[in-house]
Give the backbone structure.
Amino acid sequence: MSIFNLEKISSLILNSHNILIVSHYDPDGDALGSSIGLYKALNKLKKNCYVYNRDKIPDYLSFIKCSNLIDCLSKIPNDIDLIIFVDLNDFERAGSEIEKYMLSFKNNIMVIDHHQNPKIDSKNAFIETSCSATAILIFKIIDHMQIDMDKELATNLLTGIITDTSSFKNSNTNSQSLDIASKLLDFGADLSLINSSIYNDKSIKRINLEKKILSNFLFDNNSKTGFSYCTLQDYEETNTTKEDSEGMANYFLHHMEVMIGVFVREIDDKSWKVSLRSNGYIDLSKLANIFGGGGHKNAAGFKYSGEIEDLRKDLNNKIINEK
């Protein structure tokens, strides 16, 4: 799916003055790299820009800086004339505050995203599902508008590409992502900083959490699924947060028998956030849609209420039926 008109995007941005950029809660490297990268680019055009995210920047992405990052409605200025949703296509993914805010917002809305099955109805939806990361779309906009690229901006965008391709290991890696990553390196993107921050700076408490997660690991040969979970008690006992379990679903894919990595974390009593990862075994976006979620073919997720064992059995059955 490709709905991407650079001229229309450029015109809408240039004719706006006070711009709010919104990315999804539980932000990853693409959400933050893309939204804050776009913020820095539009600052070069002397636009008044703000970035909203319900959640704080995770520690492992703390090298991505933004002076105008806001996390509550009371901090949003009253004169916003354009809202740009980045790396999401459903108001729900931005949080309940933004959902309520959008009920009364009457000015222009833009969506820049690479996910399938968009749920935001906007004439300014710019979606390219063939892109490995939203950061690639932001690069195209910056390049088209001839905005100067600097080292910090290039590092932000490369972070988005690296996280959404798992350092070019996922099957969504293509010639476009490699080409743009190369260009960002030429602009001075700090690959060493990105890799050390995301992959190498692992604390002892995170290792203790991973021990608990791996002790819950189960492999189902029929669905080829590697499944594990983490409870709120596990986080409390190891003095960790959800950030410390980031990337576990991808980690399970490193084992040759596992075709689908599933990591589940408890968000409330018997309420779970499910992350799905694969390398083309089945279309995970269709699987997640069955449970009311969404995402990409190889990376998707949903929320689930109930017993963890019921979830595992239900998921395995649905995967077997999808095959």
